[in-house]
Amino acid sequence: MAYWLYKSEPSAWSWEQQKAAGAKGTEWTGVRNYLARNNMRAMKIGDKGFFYHSNEGLEIVGIVEVCALSHPDSSAKGDPKWDCVDIRAVMDVPKPVTLKEIKANSKFEKMALVTSMRLSVQPVMDEEYLEICRLGGIDKPPRSSD
DNA sequence: GCCAACGTTGGC
DNA sequence: GCCAACGTTGGC
C-alpha cells in the first residue's frame, strides 16, 4: 500500500483540467528528475495520491489514482531515461489542505513536502495520507489497492 | 520578482 | 570523480 503526491503549477496543469480529463486520465509527463521518475516506476495500478497546486494556491486540492503503469514519457522524444504513469482524478478534497497547515503540524515534519521541497513526485506515508484526508474533510479516504 | 535550495552539466 | 557554474523550482 503506497500513497503519493503530485505537484503541478495550476497555470500549467490544474486540478480542474485533471478532472476534465475524466476516467481515462492523463500521462503525468514532463518529470525530469530521477528520484521523481523512480517514484513513478514504483507505482501500482490503483495507488492513490494527492494533487498539489504549487506556486499558486499552495494546497492539496484533490485525490488521484494511478490508472496506467509507468511507460515511456511521450514528451521525452524517445529519450529512454524518462518514464511516467497515467493518473486520473478520484475526488475533490472538500477543504483543501494548505502547505501552511502542513508546515505548522508536527505530524508532518517528516513529510517529503516539507523535507524535500523541490521533489515533484513524492511518496506519502500512510499516516500522513490519512491525517491529510481527515483535515481535508474526507470521511472515508479512498485506499490504495487493499 | 527575488532568492535559497538543490539538481545537473561540464571542465579539469 | 570532483566541484564550480549554471539552471530550475517553488515559497515568500
From TrEMBL:
InterPro entries: 5hmC_binding, EVE_domain, PUA-like_sf, THYN1-like_EVE. It comes from the Bacteria. CDD domains: EVE (cd21133). Residues 2-134 form the EVE domain. PANTHER family: THYMOCYTE NUCLEAR PROTEIN 1 (PTHR14087). This is EVE domain-containing protein. The lineage of its organism: Bacteria, Pseudomonadati, Pseudomonadota, Alphaproteobacteria, Hyphomicrobiales.
